[in-house]
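look at this one:
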Amino acid sequence: VQLQACGGGLVQSGGSLRLSCVASGNIFSIDDMRWYRQDPGKQRELVATVTNTGTTTYLDSVKGRFTISRDNAKNTVYLQMNSLKPEDTAVYYCNADIRANVMFSRAYWGQGTLVTVSS
């Protein structure tokens, strides 16, 4: 199983970006899907989660600006980021709990995509 993230880049403060992350391989089903971020020298933090039924949760600092969603038919999770701020600058990682069969679930990580917000 692999997670492939894309969509990062350089954007001005107030701008928008959309991250995507596709899961591929031996997949029976996917439970929670998440986006994390990590700034150099800081701990990785959980930005947003979407369950397999569509329930979402967010880091307080991104509420109202970021939207996480998923397309179960495409095994894909998205992160729409609006009103970006310089403090959103980080490497963003997707993460998902994936089942190769009905009994066993494992967490997988994508490779990370860099988001840079200039002031």
About this structure: Residues 33 and 114 are 19 Å apart (CA to CA).
